[in-house]
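I have a small job for you when you get a moment. Can you supply me with one protein entry, sequence and fold together? It will help me judge whether the discrete encoding reads sensibly. Write everything out right here, beneath this request:
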Amino acid sequence: MNRLIIVIYYLVVYGSIFLISVLTPYITRKTESFGVSIPTDKYHDKDILLIRNKYRNSVVLFGGIIAIIALVSIFTIPSKYAIFFITAAMLIQMGVMSIFYLKSHKKMKKLKNEKQWSKDRIETVVIDTEFRNKKVVVSPVWFALYLVVIGITLGFGMLYYDQMPDRIPMQYAMDGTVSRWADKSYRILLFAPLVQTFLTTVMVFVYWVIRKAKQQIDPSNTKESLQQNRVFRYRWSAFIVFGGLLLLGLFTIMQASFIGFIKGYMMTTGIPLAFTFIIIVVAIILSITTGQGGSRIRIHQKGSDKIISRDDDKYWKLGIFYYNPEDPALFVEKRFGVGWTSNFARPMTWVIFLILIVLIVLLTIGTTYLAK
């Protein structure tokens, strides 16, 4: 039965990585291809389609081979080594995706130089000064529910402390046996609320990034692009708020397992897998239906092919890392994939990263102490 859990875990996590790897070129903005800016009307150019399809076919072929090898190995090697093997398979898949991306990025840069698509077109930047005043994200009041969940988790533990067993399983091995125990104590009840507090901090930060990230408006069709961008931010902010609530719910369930209301390897493993599956599926559906910057949302407003976005490829290293000292923005849309990335030329970006690292270290130290 434990091998079935490993297979499910592998299919959920690896399957999502594989699917996103294949779909990414099709859900990015039509003004970009493999990290290279292009005119919107060239998105369906036959040469670009060839690069896009070759990338897809390569990822499908090699990703499929890796998946088959991993699945066969799960049933042929000792289960205690299987988790390490499939983790390596997922890392290999991400490495393969990166290699194929870099090859496609190089081809796109060469093609752009050859075709000279920007010739005789007007390059411009469009900013909506009223954008921040419009409803682009869900209400932050929803985060009050996070405090309610944390309070329930802590109160639930305190209320039923007397029913808690003397020894609490903290970790299971892949064969279903308990590999780490903790003695009953009041401090163990702080484990789940502490992690929930950290997750709340992260989700509020991501929500803030979505709200404050730099505008990216397609000048060839400003009205459509503005509406798409508002919907894009609103949907992802809703996903962050409610997806975060699901994550907090996982640790409420963990608290229930500490008390003894939920018992057994299958329950303590199966429920988190189910929650993870729901979050991943929703994220993939949202990515496909919305696209980067809302590019897959159909508004049907005609634009101009003579006006294109300003070419800022020089600020995008490998089409992935944004480094522009002249841009005051801390966060911008990714060029490959869905979401946002940082302006690595801004010192505040590194300060934020340092703060997150410190918080993670403190969380690790705190949870390790509480779980003793």
In short: The chain has two domains: 1-115, 127-372. The longest strand covers residues 167-172.
